[in-house]
Specification:
This protein has about 230 residues and is α/β, with parallel strands linked by helices. It contains eight helices and twelve strands.
Length: about 230
């Protein structure tokens, strides 16, 4: 099943890039290895990828710049950052640019493979597309198409944005615990993922800010609720 999955790997450390590529190919994935940001963007424009793994510190264009360009043309391909830095500002910047996850060097191949599998389980490759359209006031939300649509307006969501909104919609009117969202979407409820969740919630609030009957409320220390006024 992995043979049809194509991964863009951008890593300027020759030895690490070779090891990661070799191990992922051993798992059955098809891997395109690039040594700098410009090469990664060129390769992204030539092929369709299922996952992008981007080192942050690269020559020519860093991982943040590459992610920003990718998000201009593709809002749903999962982006995983590789970084030797643990500054929370770096993590938050990456999520603001549309990144989906982080993995800090040094890391195990097993951990990387598990992160990739989490991405793929959310995609149409391993899960049948959920075609149900959910109404949020004047908006129609299609999770499988990552689309939030109202008359005269369309917003393409990232995969994590769509996943979080789906969880809130399915529990409409009820508070969803922060930890439950983190475990379902990130697979981990650590501090940095918690800060990232706040960023995604803020984005979703802005997307539906012009819909007065729908509101995402924060229940401090507990979680979030999608409230719909009838």
């Amino acid at each position: 099943m992995n043979e049809s999955v194509r991964i863009l790997l951008a890593e300027d450390d020759v030895n690490l890039g070779f090891v990661v590529k070799d191990n992922l190919e051993h798992q059955g994935y098809r891997v395109d290895l690039c040594s700098d940001g410009e090469e990664a963007l060129e390769r992204f424009g030539q092929h369709r990828f299922d996952v992008c793994i981007l080192d942050i510190m690269m020559p020519k264009k860093d991982g943040f710049a590459v992610a920003a360009r990718i998000r201009e043309v593709n809002t749903h391909v999962p982006i995983l950052f590789l970084t030797a830095r643990t500054l929370k500002e770096d993590r938050l910047q990456g999520f603001m640019l549309g990144g989906d996850d982080y993995i800090t060097k040094p890391f195990s191949i097993e951990e990387l493979v598990l992160r990739i599998q989490v991405f793929l389980k959310r995609s149409k490759k391993e899960l049948g597309a959920q075609q149900e359209v959910i109404s949020i006031g004047k908006y129609d939300f299609n999770h499988s198409q990552l689309l939030l649509k109202s008359p005269g307006k369309e917003k393409m969501l990232t995969q994590k944005e769509a996943d979080i909104l789906l969880i809130l919609c399915q529990a409409q009117g009820r508070v969803v615990k922060r930890n439950d969202i983190l475990l379902q979407v990130w697979g981990d409820d650590d501090y940095f993922n918690g800060r990232s969740l706040d960023v995604f919630i803020s984005r979703l609030r802005k997307y539906i800010a012009d819909e007065p009957v729908a509101q995402i409320t924060n229940h401090h220390g507990v979680g979030f609720r999608l409230q719909m006024q009838m």
